[in-house]
Amino acid sequence: MNRFVNSPLKLHNKRMVNRQILMADDDADDRFLVQAAFEDNGIPNPVVFFEDGEQLVNYLTDTDNDISPLLILLDLNMPKRDGREVLQMLRGNLVWNAIPIIIFSTSNAPDDVNAAYQLGANCYIIKPSSYEGLKEAVMNIQRFWLHTATLPV
């Protein structure tokens, strides 16, 4: 008999599968490719996409606060509210400040990377230039953030 069948960790992981992953990115092609990469990697969590940071903040504001997203993928350069502004807002809010935030940007500028971490990003990933690279990046997100790390409930 498997002693882990009803372990707290297994039950915790089951609850995590139903939690959403949010992504704000103004590039429709990037949103499409990220969705495909999540599907190709067999990640069961629902992914909800937004065209800008303002849509993401509005969604969080309008959503039931009892169930926070599992994690947020956030582009830096977007219209309306850019990723830096959204990151600062999320980290300044007691309800949202524990949600892991991964910056997912084409920028490799040291100033952008440093600023993102100073504003509270948990991770900074430079968007890969190929679909295979994107699938690998998403697989690494899955391995670490969904399987290795213990995330807030």
Structure description:
- α2 (28-40) packs across α6 (131-148) and α3 packs parallel to α4 (83-91).
- The chain has helices at 8-17, 28-40, 53-62, 83-91, 110-118, 131-148; strands at residues 21-24, 47-50, 71-74, 101-105, 123-126.
- Helices cover 45% and strands 14% of the residues.
- The chain has a five-stranded parallel sheet, with helices on both faces.
- The longest helix is centred in the last third of the chain and has 18 residues, at 131-148.
- By secondary structure, the chain is of the alpha/beta class.
- β4, α5 and β5 form a beta-alpha-beta unit.
List the keywords:
153 residues; alpha/beta; five-stranded parallel β-sheet; 6 helices; 45% helix; globular; disordered N terminus
**Residue fraction in strands:** 5-15%
Sheet with most strands: 5 strands, parallel
What's the oligomerization state?
A: single chain
**Could you state the order of secondary-structure elements as H and E?**
HEHEHEHEHEH
* Shape assignment: globular
Taking the alpha carbons of the first and last residues, their distance comes to 28 Å
Mean pLDDT: 86
The total count of strands amounts to: 5
Q: Which residues sit in consecutive blocks of at least 5 with pLDDT less than 50?
A: 1-14
Question: What strand order characterises the main sheet?
Answer: 2-1-3-4-5
Which structural class do the helices and strands define?
alpha/beta
The helix count comes to 6
Share of helix, binned: 40-55%
Q: Using only CA atoms, what is the Rg?
A: 16 Å
